[in-house]
Amino acid sequence: MARKYFGTDGVRGQVGVAPITPDFVMRLGYAAGMVLAKDYASSSRPTVLIGKDTRISGYMLEAALEAGFSAAGVDVMLAGPMPTPAIAYLTRALRLQAGVVISASHNPFQDNGIKFFSAHGTKLPDSVELAIEEAIDQPMACVPSDKLGRATRLRDAQGRYIEFCKSTFPNELDLRGLKIVVDSAHGAAYNIAPHVFHELGAEVVSIGATPDGFNINAGFGATAPKALSAAVIEHKADLGIALDGDADRLIMVDANGRVYNGDELLYLMVRDRMATGEVAGAVGTLMTNMALEVAFKELGIGFARAKVGDRYVLEVMQERGWILGGEGSGHLLALDKHTTGDGIVSSLQVLSALKRSGKSLEACCSELTLYPQTLINKRVTPGFDWTKDAAMVAEKEAVERELGDTGRVLIRASGTEPLIRVMVEAKNAEMADSMARRIADKLAA
């Protein structure tokens, strides 16, 4: 059954445009509350934790969600601005029934979204999302006054999460002697990430840490790493760490300002785990660079591709019993450390690998050379099906014949925005770029 409201990462869109409107979000909270209450076998009320990033619209949507949950008889704990993976952790640690994050991740401030975590700190199963969608379309009611949910503020949410992040770094190691630039994208980790690295001993230069409600992801963070590269060079730092608006993505920069994406960081994490134990395999996505697949094959490491989206990476990891996986965009998962992708936790895994090896980021990734890859995003009308665009399909097939087994073509619709993504990998950057443009230019306007 197709989902009507939920995409690959919750419900997302432009604020003020359906479904990201106060009335819909209140109904969403009510529907989710009714589904949770129905499955909650206890005499006490279920409790959910709500966190948000730094968008101005978060205040409005938080109030709407709170009202919806209360009307369904569900108690609410408010965490304020917190990274998405922090809500996953706190939901599990506090034994709550669900966690909710108000965020549009790497999107601009005009967008926002709602995503849910289960009591186990994982994304909700499709079956539960479908149950919530069915409930949304039912008339909204309200429990009796004596059954209404209450709202409370969670004390020291930031401190609890900082300590959790630090606990994923080896006790015998520290970050003394490292100068790190930390870019929080003016997002949810602005008052958390710098503290984590500082408390582990690093000298920290913090950028992208002055949110005003409108500047989230604007020129800073994992989707705009130029600011981080410049800051690393300016401050003569050893490396840089960039998160996105909700801090579930990680991009890193070496001392020379060179950017390392999720594929390279996953490779580094796998190599480090191989040095300390056995690694059965790792999971990437349809977008993962071919070089990573080839490298893992040479190392005798299993590799599997999932659909794009960290929830699908997680599903394949769980199916195969593997603990490492990720996306080139910077979503990285280490299931022995956290239940979901976490930019801060992932960066600590990379930093522990560097510390154990005694090498720089550049040296640790020197054996992996990514294939040139061009990605072009074309905005389309919602619901557009590129497979019915005859000219685009024909050009894709022509490019694939030219590439043979020396490259790849991938076309897919974004799960969070009305975009068609055209990706080409080829022998050289010029070929990848020209072929991707050939295909994208065929897209009907």
From TrEMBL:
<dbReference type="InterPro" id="IPR050060">
    <property type="entry name" value="Phosphoglucosamine_mutase"/>
</dbReference>
<dbReference type="Pfam" id="PF02878">
    <property type="entry name" value="PGM_PMM_I"/>
</dbReference>
<dbReference type="InterPro" id="IPR005845">
    <property type="entry name" value="A-D-PHexomutase_a/b/a-II"/>
</dbReference>
<dbReference type="InterPro" id="IPR005844">
    <property type="entry name" value="A-D-PHexomutase_a/b/a-I"/>
</dbReference>
<dbReference type="GO" id="GO:0006048">
    <property type="term" value="P:UDP-N-acetylglucosamine biosynthetic process"/>
</dbReference>
<feature type="binding site">
    <location>
        <position position="248"/>
    </location>
    <ligand>
        <name>Mg(2+)</name>
    </ligand>
</feature>
<dbReference type="InterPro" id="IPR036900">
    <property type="entry name" value="A-D-PHexomutase_C_sf"/>
</dbReference>
<keyword id="KW-0460">Magnesium</keyword>
<dbReference type="InterPro" id="IPR005841">
    <property type="entry name" value="Alpha-D-phosphohexomutase_SF"/>
</dbReference>
<keyword id="KW-0413">Isomerase</keyword>
<feature type="domain" description="Alpha-D-phosphohexomutase C-terminal">
    <location>
        <begin position="375"/>
        <end position="441"/>
    </location>
</feature>
<feature type="domain" description="Alpha-D-phosphohexomutase alpha/beta/alpha">
    <location>
        <begin position="261"/>
        <end position="368"/>
    </location>
</feature>
<dbReference type="GO" id="GO:0005975">
    <property type="term" value="P:carbohydrate metabolic process"/>
</dbReference>
<dbReference type="GO" id="GO:0004615">
    <property type="term" value="F:phosphomannomutase activity"/>
</dbReference>
<feature type="modified residue" description="Phosphoserine">
    <location>
        <position position="105"/>
    </location>
</feature>
<dbReference type="InterPro" id="IPR005846">
    <property type="entry name" value="A-D-PHexomutase_a/b/a-III"/>
</dbReference>
<dbReference type="InterPro" id="IPR005843">
    <property type="entry name" value="A-D-PHexomutase_C"/>
</dbReference>
<feature type="binding site">
    <location>
        <position position="244"/>
    </location>
    <ligand>
        <name>Mg(2+)</name>
    </ligand>
</feature>
<feature type="binding site" description="via phosphate group">
    <location>
        <position position="105"/>
    </location>
    <ligand>
        <name>Mg(2+)</name>
    </ligand>
</feature>
<dbReference type="GO" id="GO:0009252">
    <property type="term" value="P:peptidoglycan biosynthetic process"/>
</dbReference>
<feature type="domain" description="Alpha-D-phosphohexomutase alpha/beta/alpha">
    <location>
        <begin position="160"/>
        <end position="257"/>
    </location>
</feature>
<dbReference type="Pfam" id="PF02879">
    <property type="entry name" value="PGM_PMM_II"/>
</dbReference>
<dbReference type="Pfam" id="PF02880">
    <property type="entry name" value="PGM_PMM_III"/>
</dbReference>
<protein>
    <recommendedName>
        <fullName>Phosphoglucosamine mutase</fullName>
        <ecNumber>5.4.2.10</ecNumber>
    </recommendedName>
</protein>
<comment type="similarity">
    <text>Belongs to the phosphohexose mutase family.</text>
</comment>
<feature type="domain" description="Alpha-D-phosphohexomutase alpha/beta/alpha">
    <location>
        <begin position="3"/>
        <end position="138"/>
    </location>
</feature>
<keyword id="KW-0479">Metal-binding</keyword>
<dbReference type="GO" id="GO:0000287">
    <property type="term" value="F:magnesium ion binding"/>
</dbReference>
<dbReference type="GO" id="GO:0008966">
    <property type="term" value="F:phosphoglucosamine mutase activity"/>
</dbReference>
<feature type="binding site">
    <location>
        <position position="246"/>
    </location>
    <ligand>
        <name>Mg(2+)</name>
    </ligand>
</feature>
<comment type="function">
    <text>Catalyzes the conversion of glucosamine-6-phosphate to glucosamine-1-phosphate.</text>
</comment>
<feature type="active site" description="Phosphoserine intermediate">
    <location>
        <position position="105"/>
    </location>
</feature>
<dbReference type="Pfam" id="PF00408">
    <property type="entry name" value="PGM_PMM_IV"/>
</dbReference>
<dbReference type="InterPro" id="IPR016066">
    <property type="entry name" value="A-D-PHexomutase_CS"/>
</dbReference>
<dbReference type="InterPro" id="IPR016055">
    <property type="entry name" value="A-D-PHexomutase_a/b/a-I/II/III"/>
</dbReference>
<keyword id="KW-0597">Phosphoprotein</keyword>
<dbReference type="InterPro" id="IPR006352">
    <property type="entry name" value="GlmM_bact"/>
</dbReference>
<dbReference type="GO" id="GO:0005829">
    <property type="term" value="C:cytosol"/>
</dbReference>
